[in-house]
Amino acid sequence: xxxxxRFAMDQKGIVRTLITTVGSFTQDRLIDKEQRVxxxxxxxxxxxAEDGSSGNDTEVRYSxxxxxxxxxxxxxxxxxxxxxxxxxxxxxxxxxxEKMLHVCAMLTSDQKTAGVxxxxxxxxxxxxxxxxxxxxxxxxxxxxxxxxMFIVEPFFSRIDFxxxxxxxxxxxxxxxxxxxxxxxxxxxMMEVVPDSSDMSFTADLDQFFNESLVFSMRPDxxxxxxxxxxxxxxxxxxxxxxxxxxxKDCMNSDSSSGAGKKVMAPMLPIAEPPMTPLHExxxxxxxxxxxxPILPKSAGFSPVLKSKHGGREGNNxxxxxxxxxxxxxDESAAWDPRGGVPEGNEDDxxxxxxxxxIGSSVQQQTKINRTRSPLIFSPVDSPRTSSSKTSSxxxxxxxxKESGSLLxxxxxxxxxxxxxxSLPISPSKSSHSISSADSDGEVIETPKSCRKNGGxxxxxxxxxxxxxxxxxxxxxxxxxxxxxxxxxxxxxxLTPHSKALKDFVCPITGQIFNDPVTLETGQTYERKAIExxxxxxxxxxxxxxxxxxxxxxxxTNYVLxxxxxxxxxxxxxxxxxLLYSETPKARFSSPLGKEIVLVSPSNQTxxxxxxxxxxxxxxxxxxRFTRPVVATSPTSVISQAAVETIINELxxxxxxxxxxxxxxxxxxAVLEIARLWKDSKGDAAVHxxxxxxxxxxxxxxxxxASLDREVLRASIYILCELIFGDESxxxxxxxxxxxxxxxxxxxxxxxxxxAVLMYQLRPAFTQLSSxxxxxxxMQIILCKSEESDDLLFMIKPKDAAIAMLEQILxxxxxxxxxxxxxxxxxxxxxxxxxxxxxxxxGRRSIISILxxxxxxxxxxxxxxxxxxxxxxxxxxxxxxxxxxxxICVDFLSELVQLNRRTLSNQMLQIIxxxxxxxxxxxxxxxxxxxxxEHQPATATLLLxxxxxxxxxxxxxYREEAIEALIEALRKKEFPNQQMMVLDALLSxxxxxxxxxxxxIESWLLKVAGFDHPYNALVKADWTExxxxxxxxVCSWEKRVAFVLCNHExxxxxxxxxxxxxxxxxKMTKSCLVIATWLxxxxxxxxxxxxxxxxxxxLLDEFINVLQSSKNLEEKILAVLALKxxxxxxxxxxxxxxxxxxxxxxxxxLKRNSFVATDILKALMNLxxxxxxxxxxxxxxxxxxxxxNGEVLCMVYLKGCLISSHSDGTIKVWDAGRRRLRLxxxxxxxxxxxxxxxxxxxxxxxxxxxLDKTIRVWELKPEExxxxxxxxxxxxVHELAANAKFACFISQGNGVKVYNWSGTPKHINFNKSVxxxxxxxxxLYCGCSGYNIQELDLCSGTVNTFHLGTRKLLGKQTVNSLxxxxxxxxxxxxxxxxxxxxxxxxxxxxxxxxxxxxxDIQRIAVNNDFIFTATKLGIIEVWLKERVSRVGSIKMKGxxxxxxxxxxxxxxxxxLYAASSDGKIQVWALD
Length: 1470
Description:
The structure is a single chain. The chain has 1470 residues and is of the alpha+beta class. It is 43% helix and 14% strand. The protein contains 50 helices and 42 strands. The strands form 14 sheets. It has a 4-stranded antiparallel beta sheet, with no helix packed on it. A 4-stranded antiparallel beta sheet has the order 16-17-18-19, with no helix packed on it. A 4-stranded antiparallel beta sheet has the order 20-21-22-23, with no helix packed on it. α27 (774-782) runs antiparallel to α28, α33 runs antiparallel to α34 and α44 packs parallel to α46 (1112-1123). The longest helix is centred in the N-terminal third of the chain and has 40 residues, at 219-258. The radius of gyration is 46 Å and the shape is elongated. Residues 1-8, 199-204, 276-298, 302-499 and 580-638 have low confidence and may be disordered.
């Protein structure tokens, strides 16, 4: 909708255009986070300015504070919604933001809140609401809120909130108002312009409207102009509101018509100017027409507040047609809107606030920004706008008062960054600094004298300008609302020559105009200067940055030229002095080069940003190059004649360098040129002479052709000096790839000085990475000896190499950074870098490199710890800015994470006690102000320092550190910070491997009985001092766990509970490890009452992990944590509610962790747990083996099932995947194999047969092999054997014992033996009469283990025995309803009974259950812990087959039963 036209479209077209334009605007704002942050800061600055102007004694009501807080919370919630990718979080934050912003949007328009006009707050809220509805994909509501913003507060909406949108939506309708204003201003200014009678009425006077005309106005003319601008601004506001309402009606009408309602279309309003122009004006709006004053953010609201009847308050000055001054240069300084002082680096400021008001007397001391120094950049710390302190008055500054002092008046708008322009002043005159009204507090700096500024006017040394104002100084308030301080030597008002001078000086050259040309933007420049600007390829105005429609320059501004001529005639002495001081030989930089101190935001990329540490070093070294200006003044150090002599000598050598084809002659010429350059002491004229492109190319040709090391060093030295004076020379070199390739080749060939020149060229990361310079740069750093100091470079090669090495490491992708860091480690560069820390220059870069290397290869931390002097790191921390402090904290935090706890404690003790300042207090202060990403490392480091002593008393350091960690854990909106805190907590216990990784998880698994991961670590990480280190670690982790668990009654558990609900697998895994460790430590530490808090927060989470996780290690960690709660009655009852859900999982975990067994025992002892409900089984398979007769016996071993049959066959089955797979058949026995036995050692299989033999089998994977055959002369019915004895039952009473080398020995009990069970050298025999005999195989003695009760009727026999752990299980005939018992072997006490009415034929036991088989084919299942019946299994088949064998696997996963009808049936136990 931008353009010079009124709407010529229907209502629907207007609505479509509105939706498109506003939608594009809001989308651009949502995409550009920097713009949103900057806009919020600017608005907040205006609020702060208003708060300051209202007086500090005014108490702000609580309700007003709440309104402002709602606005701030709403904007923050909206920002969080923009940044999050989680849909639920996004909707929640948007809903919250809408509620908060509506509070401000609905404020009463004619009142204030905390001194701030309500319309301003409402407009700000409506703007953010439009963003909110755009995020909800509701463009219609977004447009309505934007229009409401323009209705509520049109003034600030068009200058602060959405100026670009105003130009598109409203500016096309304001042409009549703009035309009226242009005509009125035109006629008013015609009265002021000199010689205006000679001009036609239609002359284009835009080029003549500058500040000098305003200064020359009479008071009545000034008042007219002020009222004109006030009326113009009010007219723009009123018509903006009018058209905003019209657009709103169009939107509402369109939505109503879409709903089927007939609504009358709104009428298009007409923007009427306050008065009718005398003649028709063009709709084109002149460039000088401004749409309202451009207010600095520091102006608050006082200049624009409008009462209902009084209109806007007037300003003491009119707003002038001067745009913000912006220059396209490589170096720039930051603009501080609070102090109004341009600065290059936040540490370069040397101002202090003073309680004195800026009024009748202002004295300032400022630094002149350097413009020639070779800045050293770091990719870590990019240039940013920094705050400078307010300059303080100095009462002891003496400045000579002379009536002829020259005053410079420059004006810049705060709408864009400003530049301070250095104007050469006569040595005999005093210099003064004037902060003009138009510059909004900008301080203009002038050198004391030409001699002080030196031959290098922009050297790295700072010149201080002392400014003193006498009692006749005055201050006034500008039209932007800022204070203007003007120092006048003897009078209280500006003299004509001081008023006019500032508009007679070119902003580029800093000299009085000779041939002024005024561009279409309204800015005037010297013709030669602007031509050079355009010839460089620029297409914009240097000050306003507006694009020029043509590169053809207009005619000379003769009006301004005549004014300058008239001024020179009136003040010939000043003009002559200016001409005298502006000697061309004092300036060797380009007109756009070093005379302008940039105050624009830096245009450097993040991959090559400012590095202050080395830069300060360059500043100190550069002081020796500062030279006076070359002039005819007798005070000059080098006379003009001496300079001319040097230049004349240079001519022949330069000619030889550029034209000779003889390499030796050229090399000699280079050496002579270097000598003469040193003799000239860096004179500006000599520099200018040597800076010619042909000469620079000659030096580069020498670098590519020469092999003489001295010649190469001299060439590089001269080029470095030239670039130091004029960086455009470096740009020339970097534009040719072959030049940089040449330098890279020299560097690789061992010429260390090439690193200095390469560094000064500020290469991009792509250039450095393409040449693979890491190895060469490290060779410079590793080199112990340095070249002789005959050529004094601005920085040493080693410092340049370190700076470039940091750039290479910090830039690029993760893979390239890792490879480069590993290259440094492999070259043994860590130790050399550590040794370089004593050098102040480059210290920050070294720490950045070391930090990067430790993160890539954590094992190098031991190398650093053994050689580092921590004092250097602490010095850098104490003196650095926030960015440097963050790097130091991260480095120290990484450094103390060593695999030796004793060494870590030593490092912490050094950090705590080293240095002149209290390290802990400094860390505490930094923690409270640190950026979010540095808080976890700072808090962790501070906590470790505090824990060096026993945590007995309360410590503010400890409390603040833990609170910061827990607070960061709670910030769901910042998952990266949460992950950083979790990593920090994982490292706190101090269990670190030699590779630098935490092994706390492996250690916890070992505690739970799953020691495979820990054993692998111990094998690779074993040290002789392991036992001593383990003691130190145990003591340390107890301290850490104690303070973490007891902080605020265990609030860390609640924070961990929230982390468990996160969707990130990595985050929840880390949280599980930390929660398990803390919970486990609670069982070791004294009970302080926090276990209940841990149970309430984490019990359900651990159970959830146990149920849902598919990772074995995670389940074991959860089981270990749950074990802590089994002694707590409340916790175990709570756990019992989940018994049915977790029982199966716990049974499976028993094979990997004994902790699961403890939990199962505790659960089974609960009266509330019904064991029957937890039991179930599933039929898997039934095998019909009747072809081999009966299945007489089975054994289970290592995933294999072995069965014996009545036809003498032994079969081996693979039982690994539940389905039985036959892998072998053995036919060694010729008769039925009645029994099989595997001893506890599990290395042999013994088989007994009716063929009167016992065979010994070797067990192989999926195979058995007979290795021995023993003929025992009797049929074997039951067998138990080990390596020494074989015991078997044959016919008759007693048992036969065979020692493998002789005949069987008969042991007669006078009782019939039915079954055997062996453990060690003990043999238990189940006999008739329900007796159990115990036989000592070594001594042959027999003892009665159990004597059964005699019954008159029936036979009482023990049919089956089974030994498991220290228990003996016996089953047989039912006596008084009891068919079996469980005995403790050591005490012979009865531990339980089997109350069943059926005789037990076979009994089998595993870790969880007891299985008893009866004659009827029924298998009863008993819980082993309580010997209680939980279920039963019925074998398939129509008849009543006898169960001949019953075998479970050891972990109760499967059950195998064999029957007399030749079948094997398999069940899966759940």
